[in-house]
Amino acid sequence: MMGSHLNRANDNLPKDIAFSIDYLSTGGLGEVVMITDAAYRAKQPRVQSTPDMILALCILAQEAIDARRAAKEADGDQPS
Description:
Blueprint: H1 2-6, H2 15-41, H3 51-74
Helix pairs in contact: 2-3
């Protein structure tokens, strides 16, 4: 399962990925969203990023998905 592979709580992440996670978690996500939204609205087919930033986004997204799933299960909802 992807979630277990991306679980950063037990991983020793490379410093560049850890830095990217910290950056995104302390306000950088808003900047990334703003830049990406501007590119989307301008109908640009791609945005430039680095592999460490993409991996950090994937790790944070997986954590959010896992947390949402756990919250739904705690409320008695079926996982989706």
